[in-house]
# Entry
Amino acid sequence: MNRYEPGTPRTALGLAAIALTALTVGLLVVVPAKMEVSPDALMMARIRAAHPPIEVAITPARIDVVGERDREVAAVEDGAIPPKAKPAS
# Structure
């Protein structure tokens, strides 16, 4: 019996997976951590932290949704489709 031989070697796929993982971690974790933050952004963050957001009451606090459906939802009349099983005798 012939054995299946994949077209792409497993080591090449493994190395590609490791390279893509390192690239992803580098772009999403390392690069943002190394970026310099402007002093204006730091000042705005401090101002926002010093003044917490104001709570607002929502009126009405509850929303009721009422729905209606048509009484005739089936497009096929009763008996138009024959049953798949044989009737019991």
